[in-house]
Each structure stands twice: as structure tokens, then as C-alpha cells.
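Anyone else keep sequences and C-alpha cells together like this?

Example one:
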Amino acid sequence: MTITITAFERSPDGGKGLARDTRVRWALEEVGQPYEVRLVSFAEMKAPDHLAIHPFGQIPTYEEGSLSLFETGSIVLHLAEQHAGLLPEDRHARARAITWMFAALNTVELPILELTTARIFEVDKPWSEERLPLVKDRVRACLDKLSARLGVADWLDDEFSAGDLLMVSVLLRLRMSGILDEYQNLAAYVARGEARPAYLRAFAAQFAINAPECL
């Protein structure tokens, strides 16, 4: 059965790989599954057909036969459970990898998204100058713990997993802020993720859609 995902017709990030369809593309590339992409406009994301798949009117979505999914964590976990390459065979290592998936999306991404909101959408507010340092401190507090846990290891556990895929994807959102560069081991960790052939293919596919806009 053909796998079809949705992506922005024109990504707000201009093809920098920050749109969440890149995470799903990366997972599909890691497990070696071909897929098709249906591009949707912002208007189409709010249309009944799309809302029937994603009730919150966002991307990406995942369709395979009669199965329809939304939320990147759910989609990546489904792919990891169905195909080899993203979850270890050992049941304890597998459980740890899934735990890191949840940590990436529930613990690490939340303050990073708050920073994005503060830097882009709240910058014109009268209280922005006072709030921004507080938001950055919350991000750093989280990264302090993540950096200490990673240490000098290549990946969060013994081998690359879906947990690393999502964690790297989340940390990539910090690059523009400069905060990631304050943590040498985390910056190197993200670079290792970006260097994976599967990520490079996923990034190229997402960038190709937006390339004319970027030139």
C-alpha cells in the first residue's frame, strides 16, 4: 500500500527542514519506505477533507490504506514499530528509545516552542524585552540536563533510534537563536543527526518544494 503524507505547499521556514513533515520524511527514509507527498495550502488545511484526517488542521498527516494518522510522534512511533531501523530489538532498550521520543516532544520541545513564539510572534509586545530572557533561561535549564545526560556519547542510548530522530529535530529549532552553540556536545549531536544519509534525503526532498521561493 502506498504511504502518503501531507506537507506545506509553501513551508513557513522556507525549506530549512523545520516543518514537521521533515521528521516523518526522515523516519521513512531511515526505515527504507517509499512515500508520496500531497501538498496542501493553509486554506486546504482547514478544509473538511483535511480536518477529517487531522482534526486540528495541521501537517503532517499519514495515510496508508485505511489507516490515517496525525501527530509526528505517533507517526514516527508507528513506522518504528512496523519496520526495522528505528527501535532496538532488546525490549528494555526499546522502551528507553520510546521514552526519549516522549521526552523530546513533551519536555524539550515545549520551552523551545515558547522561545520561538517569544522571538517571532511576541517581539512587538511591550513586555517582550523583559520576558525573552526568562524564556531563554527555561530553555537553558532544560538543555543543561540534556547535555549532562548525553555527555560524550554519540546518541542518547547505545545506538541511533527514533528517540534521537525526534530529539535532533526538536533541537534544530534552536539553531537560529544561537543557544545550541552554547552546548558543544549537543551541537555535535545535532550535526551527527543531520549527517545521516536518511536525513540528507529527507531535507533535500523538503527543500526541493521550497527552493524556487528561496532563490
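And example two:
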Amino acid sequence: MIFSILADIVVFIHFLFIVFAVIGAVLVFKWWWVIYPHLLSAFWAAMVITMGWICPLTPLENSLRRAAGEAGYSGGFIEHYFLPIIYPEGLTREIQIWLGAGVILINILIYSLVWYKQSQS
């Protein structure tokens, strides 16, 4: 039971990391210091997805699921709603490259707005 809960927590953290990597730059409007962890996160996310690497959270989650005696991603709320976002079906190498480019482009756009706002002050 505890391993299953821990695996769910890892999935939720994974989801939050993805959201932060993609649109976390908006937090820079309020807290300037967020730029440092955000740029590192966005770079890591873009590299993982474009290079086809496996995020360390994935093997951690899988090992926790195995320790809980689970074989798949059926079950609770987190698995039902967040796993299809993190691990979509039909994900190809080409789509991964486009997603990685999207992470970079979204962040370039947001940071351009941050820079523009700062230069207007």
C-alpha cells in the first residue's frame, strides 16, 4: 500500500515538473529568482524529450509499482488523470522532438515577455 502511494506521489511530482518546465517562466514575473531553477528544469525537460532519454522519475515510479505488486498504471485518481498526459499513447520520436522544441519555444516567448516588461520598468 505504501509503495503504491509513493508511486502516485512520484507521478504527481513528475506532472508538476513538466508543468513547471513548460510554463514555469510565468513565475519569473512575480519572483525573479525562479529563473534559475526554471531554466535548468526547462533545459532538462527539453533534453530528455528530444534525446529520447528516460527521466529518472520514471524508473523510480516503476520500481515503486513493482514493490507494491502492481503491473501497470490502472487504479487511482492520479494514474487515471495524469499518466495519459505524462505517457501519451502513440508517442513517436518525431513527436518527442516537436514537444522538446515546443518547450523551448514556449519558454523563449515567455522570457521575451519578461525581458520586455523588465526593460519597460
